[in-house]
Structures are given as structure tokens and as C-alpha cells.
Amino acid sequence: MKIKVLKDILGANEQLAANNRELLDSNKVFAVNIMASPGAGKTSVVLQTIRALKDKVRIGVIEGDIASSIDAETVAKEGIPVVQINTGGECHLEANQLENALNNLPLADIDLLLIENVGNLVCPAEFNLGEHRKVLIASVPEGDDKPFKYPLMFNTVDALILNKIDLLPYVKFNVNTFTKTVQNINSKVEIFKVSCTTGEGIQAWAKWLNAQMKQR
Ligand code: MG
Ligand code: ZN
User: Fold this and answer.
1) For residue 1, how far is its CA from the centre of ligand 1 (angstroms)?
2) 119 CA distance to ligand 2 middle (Å)
3) I need a labelling partner for 66 at 20 to 30 A (CA). Which of 24, 97, 101, 180 fits?
4) What mean pLDDT, rounded, does the chain reach?
């Protein structure tokens, strides 16, 4: 019985995600669902992406958190439209919450929508929001064994950002092992090695993202 209930939830979510995609497409908005564990640097990557691309494209942001609007306030300082979703305890975003956020954004004035999901490597992978691309941020201090522990998440994404590479000299993390493990799980994934502190790798990531938007 429990399985049936879960199927119903996911089925309803899929329908709402399809509606969101239609709304995004009709407004020519390219949406990216950014997922990661807490502290991997989602908001830092969002900020760096804004700074790298805001002269080329009009950007909007949706911040998903269990509570608070700290991240939305940080992003708003960049002078772009931002909406905060508080899930009130839920550990992932669902399509109905995204629909609500989309209704509160000036979609006609946005080309690229960055959606920062709730920090969690498990269920965000199961809920489509209507996004065009899924991106995972992993970070060096989390260790190189995460792909073994969360295979669905690593399998489901189009791009993987390995953040905090400036910490590699101080942390036990084998980039080659990590990369090979990820590619075994997901042969199509694009991998970017990035540091939001030094700015290394940000241009390569931003270039890929811009190309994905144009290619659509
Ligand atoms: Mg954040
Ligand atoms: Zn969840």
C-alpha cells in the first residue's frame, strides 16, 4: 500500500512538472535545478554564475530552504529577481512549490532561472520540477565516496560541479577516483572542477550553461 501512495505522489508531481515546463517554455525561460548536500556551496555557485553571466542573459533565482530567507537576501543584493520557498520541514522541492514560485516571478523578463533545491542528496533526485537541466554540486570536504552512497543523484544529473577544489591540498580526496566513479554511474555527465573562492573553473561552467541555453 505504501508503494502505491508514493506512486500517486510522484505521478501527481510529474503532471505539475509538465505544466511548469510548459509555462517556462512559453516564456522562453531556461530552468536549472541545482542540487547538493548542505554546505557544498549551492548559493556560492549561484552567485558566481550570476556574476559570470548577468551581462549576457537575464537571470532569476528561486531559493529552496526548509526555513529562513538568508540565501534569498544574499542573492537579492545582486539586483535580480528572487523568490524564497520555505518548505516548512520538507527535505526537497516539489513541482507544486515551484509553480507557486513561478507565479511570483517576472518570467517575461527572465532568460535563465537558477533553482536552488533544499540541501539533500536523496529525494531531490526523485522529484522533477519541470526544469531543463539538473545539476549536482559536490564538494571536496565531503569526500570522494559520495557517488557510491547516492548513486541515483549522481545518475540523474546533466552536469556535476566539484566545488572547493582550492581545498584539495588539505583534504584526502582523489579527483581521478571520484571522476571515474561518477562516469561509471553516469557516462553522459559533464564535470566541472570549480572553486568559488578563487573563481577557478567558473568560466568553463558558465560557458557550458550558456551553450545549453542557446542549444535548446
Ligand atoms: Mg544555500
Ligand atoms: Zn525529501
Assistant:
1) 36
2) 10
3) 24
4) 96
What pLDDT score was predicted for residue 1? 56
> In the CATH hierarchy, which fold is given to the domain comprising 2-215?
Rossmann fold (3.40.50)
Alpha helices in the chain (DSSP H): 2-26, 42-53, 70-76, 95-102, 146-149, 151-156, 175-185, 202-215
How many Å lie between the centroid of ligand 2 and the Cα of residue 95?
13
Q: Which grid coordinates belong to 143?
A: 569526500
C-alpha closest to that of 52 among 213, 215, 210: 210
Is residue 54 predicted with pLDDT exceeding 70?
yes
Q: Which ligand is nearest to the CA of 75?
A: 1
Distance 178 CA to ligand 1 centre (A): 24
Measure 92 CA to ligand 2 centroid, in angstroms.
4
**What is the pTM for the complete model shown?**
0.95
